[in-house]
């Protein structure tokens, strides 16, 4: 499981950035299910179905975001919590969204 302290700090950074009126809007929201191909996320190892549990935060560069969520198994049951780096352009593609 992810360290709660790190997740809390990441969320605070997003809230502060948004409250400063930066105009940044996360391309995905909490509760959305993403279906990411192996090539869609950094260090991918197969297709990943991820239910977003925290607003994405900026990652190593402006073109990447760190998405925190719960991996969904093939049978739809929740698995481990994960943080993955995904290109912003991939998050904006309609094909990465899944029907809940």
TrEMBL record:
* Entry protein name: Uncharacterized protein
User: Which species is this UniProt entry from?
Assistant: Dactylosporangium matsuzakiense
């Amino acid at each position: 499981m992810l360290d709660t302290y790190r997740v809390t700090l990441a969320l605070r950074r997003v809230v502060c950035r948004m409250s400063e009126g930066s105009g940044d809007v996360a391309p995905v929201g909490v509760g959305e299910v993403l279906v990411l191909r192996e090539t869609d996320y950094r260090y991918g190892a197969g297709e990943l179905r991820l239910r977003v549990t925290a607003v994405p935060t900026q990652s190593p560069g402006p073109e990447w975001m760190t998405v925190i969520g719960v991996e969904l198994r093939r049978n739809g049951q929740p698995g481990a919590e994960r943080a993955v780096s995904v290109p912003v352009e991939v998050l904006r593609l309609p094909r990465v969204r899944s029907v809940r």
